[in-house]
Amino acid sequence: MSLTADPPACTVPAAGGTSTHKLVNGGADKLIFKIKSSNNNEYRITPVFGFIDPSGTKDINITRTAGAPKEDKLAAFAAVTPAGTVTIPMSATA
Fold it and tell me: Where is the MSP domain (predicted)?
């Protein structure tokens, strides 16, 4: 099983903004994914969960509301049977 994010990092203005990423299933099995954030007050992610076909991709949108500049993380958990993660480092710039 192989789950990656493209691009692998997210940088948005501290004043707010949106970034689009692809979750990429590099494996031969259909995956189920769920995304968790270290900062649910300032980030909204859509979709939060879903399916990715073998060798397929799924677009995710990361939206940041206005707030102080800081570092946060997203973790996407994928599994045929729950196992495997990808972390997307995020930074809000002034």
Answer: 2-94
What is the Cβ-side half-sphere exposure of residue 43, based on CA atoms within 13 angstroms? Answer: 31
Answering whether pTM is above 0.85, one says no
Distances (CA, A) of 83 to 43, 44, 48, 61, 86: 24, 24, 17, 23, 11
State pLDDT tens for residues 34-75. 999 999 999 999 999 999 999 999 999 999 999 999 999 988
Give the residue, 19 or 76, on which the prediction is more confident: 19
- Cβ(33)–Cβ(86) below 8 Å: no
CA 4 vs. chain centroid, Å, equals 9
